[in-house]
Structure formats: C-alpha cells, structure tokens
C-alpha cells in the first residue's frame, strides 16, 4: 500500500448568490488591502467586478485591481502583479475567474511573498517559502485550481509552460456559484469538462496499488461529468448540470481522486502544455487531442486498468480479448469528445505542425531528471515525439 496524504484546507462556499458574501468573508479574515485579479471584459460587463468592489467598500476594505489574464496565463502579467502587490502593500489576493486567473494569482502570491524570481519556482526545483493568502470567485469550471496546490504559467520567452505545486498556494476559500458559468461559450464549457475528467484520469491511470474506495469515487466522478457534459451540450442553461460540473472540478484536482495511489501519470498534461505553449490552444481541447493517442501508445503497460476504465466508465461490454476491450474504451472516449465537439487530432484542432515543431515540443517537455515523464509507461523524448506524430 502506498504512503499517502490528503490535505484540502480550502473553505468552499457553494450556491446561488454566494459571491455577494465576499466583503463579509474577507473582513472576517481581517485582511485590509486586496488585489482583485481577473481576466478580460466579461467579468466587467457582467457587473461582477463592480459588485465585488461595492461589497469590499461596504466593509471598508481597500483594494487595487489587475485584469488582463489570458487563457494560458503569462509570466509578464505575473511580474506586473508582483510589483503592484508589493508597491500597494497588498495582504490578500482575490482571483475572479477560472483556472488561468487563479494560477496567475498563485504566481503573484509567490512572487510578492518571496525575494527569489518567481519563475524559478516553475522552471527549477526551487520551492517557495511563502505565499500571499488567496481566495477565489470561480466563474469557469475546469482547472480545479480553486482547491488545488498547483498552478501553471507560460513564459513568453521560449513559450515555456511550466507548473509549480505547493500547499502554500491553496486558496483559503473558494466561492462557487454555478450561475456565474451560464454565459460561457459552449466550446469553453466542453473544454472545461474534458479538463475536469483528465485531472482524475491522470491519477486513475497509475502503476501501483489502488484503493477500492478511491477507484469508486474516481469512476463515479467521471461518469457524472460525462453525463452532465453531454447534457450541457444540449441544454447550456441547465443550472443543475452546471452545479454538478463545478463541484466535480474542485474534487477532481484537490487530491481526493489520487488518494492511496502512486500519484498518477500526468504525461498527457505535460505533452499538452507544450502544445498550448507553442500554439496557444485551449487546454481542454489540447488534452482531448493528446489523451487518446497517449492511451493507444501505453495501454498494454497497464492493460487491466484500461479494461476497468472501459467497462466501469465508458460502458463498454467486455470482450473475450482484453486488448479489444481496452481499445474500445479509448475509442468510446474519442466518440464522447466528438459529441462535445472537441477535437481528437491536431488537424481537427486546426493545426498542422511541421516535423521540426513536433520535435521541438517533444524536446521541450518538462522531463524528470532521468529524462522521462509518465508512470504507466516512462516516456522519453522519442516516445513523446511518436505520440505527437500520431496525434496529427
């Protein structure tokens, strides 16, 4: 049995109009100066930012703001946020948005609380020693950053997309009102559902022992998201389905579905990071392209696991031949992606990378010191290149 820990200190405030409590919540923590961090114009047009400001003003809480976070959050804006937080003596960061905004807020929190260059925490083995406290108002269900210890930032110099994991950045609280996701484009909703499922699938496909209860939780979460993703594709205004997906987003990436495992594979995420780092594609759509091709490349290394997934998650009838069952499960996932209008190859994603670009992505992948990624099958540069080539 694997040694394991579960730590999820984030307070979740879930339900309609919960964002209206923001002034009271921050006042109860005793913070005095807030950096409001958000993305584009949608949060402004919806009136959400103004409502937050008025709530803070009513509690005599000072604030500054920084918008402009893009879907793959960039280091240059993080540096701006660090300078702003230090200059204005900010003692709390409020991230209003989805995973990109929350990830950017975490990086700003590291940079403002430490003297070391924040990029070191993403590009080397250096670990932050502190982080400004963070809270979130979630408007996109996808990344799970609202309860996780991880964040991903893109350095525009070289288009390097790298992650940092530290419990110091776990949000103190996360406000989750499914109503705030009703205006999302269908494509973004679908891509978010892919990302949610992948956070559990990365942990589910491992190469060690598994707890029966963790498997049951994981498989249930995947089935619930699959069901509600298909429902939202037909009924985008279905608030109950949006609530299910939003809660699944948080549970999928807070460590629960990896409890008792060896930590999971995460090769699909690392390969996709190079894809979105080079071409700035939507993360969930990139994952939908990479996973089936990764799965076909590695499934024989953990055949029984892929059979279990096919039967328990994708509703495949078991075949006499285990490999056939596993492959049917992978194909069923591709069909699910297509039902959500997600791509399963680079051509469908609108890309036609050159051989040199495929090789560059393979070489730039965030490998361990031994030169590999993944657990189901340890992948070297040549393996990643082969998977990317199959993805065309």
From TrEMBL:
According to the UniProt entry, its GO molecular function terms are: alcohol dehydrogenase (NADP+) activity; butanol dehydrogenase (NAD+) activity; metal ion binding; methylglyoxal reductase (NADPH) (acetol producing) activity
Organism name: Enterococcus malodoratus ATCC 43197
Write down the InterPro entries for this protein, in alphabetical order: ADH_Fe/GldA (IPR001670), ADH_Fe_C (IPR056798), ADH_Fe_CS (IPR018211), BDH-like (IPR044731)
Q: Could you name the domain of life of the organism this protein comes from?
A: Bacteria
| Domain Alcohol dehydrogenase iron-type/glycerol dehydrogenase GldA residue range list | 9-178
Question: What's in the GO CC field?
Answer: cytosol
Recite the UniProt keywords alphabetically.
Oxidoreductase
Which named protein is this? Uncharacterized protein
Stretches assigned to the Fe-containing alcohol dehydrogenase-like C-terminal domain: 189-389
Q: Which Pfam families match?
A: ADH_Fe_C, Fe-ADH
């Amino acid at each position: 049995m694997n040694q394991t820990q579960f730590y999820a200190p984030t307070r979740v405030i879930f339900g309609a109009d919960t964002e209206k409590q923001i002034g009271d919540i921050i006042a109860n923590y005793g913070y005095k100066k807030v950096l409001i961090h958000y993305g584009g114009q949608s949060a402004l047009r919806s009136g959400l930012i103004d409502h937050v400001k008025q709530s803070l003003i009513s509690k005599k809480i000072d604030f500054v703001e920084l918008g402009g976070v893009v879907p793959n959050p960039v280091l240059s804006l993080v540096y701006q946020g660090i300078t702003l937080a230090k200059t204005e003596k900010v003692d709390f960061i409020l991230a209003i948005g989805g995973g990109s905004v929350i990830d950017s807020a975490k990086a700003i929190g590291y940079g403002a609380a430490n003297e070391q260059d924040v990029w070191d925490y993403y590009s080397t083995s250096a670990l932050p020693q502190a982080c400004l406290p963070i809270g979130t108002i979630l408007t996109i269900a996808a990344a799970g950053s609202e309860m996780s210890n991880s964040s991903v930032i893109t350095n525009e110099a070289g288009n390097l997309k790298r992650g940092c994991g530290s419990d110091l950045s776990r949000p103190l609280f996360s406000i989750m009102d499914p109503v705030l996701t009703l205006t999302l484009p269908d494509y973004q909703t679908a891509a978010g559902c892919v990302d949610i499922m992948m956070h559990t699938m990365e942990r589910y496909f491992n190469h060690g022992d598994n707890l029966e209860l963790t498997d049951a939780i994981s498989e249930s979460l995947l089935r619930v998201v699959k069901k509600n993703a298909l429902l939202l594709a037909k009924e985008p205004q279905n608030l109950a389905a949006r609530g299910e997906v939003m809660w699944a987003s948080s549970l999928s990436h807070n460590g629960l579905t990896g409890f008792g495992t060896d930590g999971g594979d995460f090769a699909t995420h690392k390969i996709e990071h190079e894809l979105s780092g080079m071409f700035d594609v939507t993360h969930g759509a990139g994952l939908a392209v990479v996973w089936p091709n990764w799965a076909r490349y590695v499934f024989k290394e953990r055949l029984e696991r892929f059979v279990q997934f096919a039967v328990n998650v994708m509703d495949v009838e078991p075949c006499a031949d285990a490999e056939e069952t596993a492959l049917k499960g992978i194909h069923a996932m591709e069909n699910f992606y297509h039902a959500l209008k997600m791509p399963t190859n680079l051509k469908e994603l609108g890309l036609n990378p050159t051989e040199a670009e495929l090789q560059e992505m393979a070489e730039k992948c965030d490998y361990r010191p031994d030169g590999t990624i993944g657990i189901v099958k340890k992948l070297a540069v040549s393996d990643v290149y082969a998977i990317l080539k199959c993805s065309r």
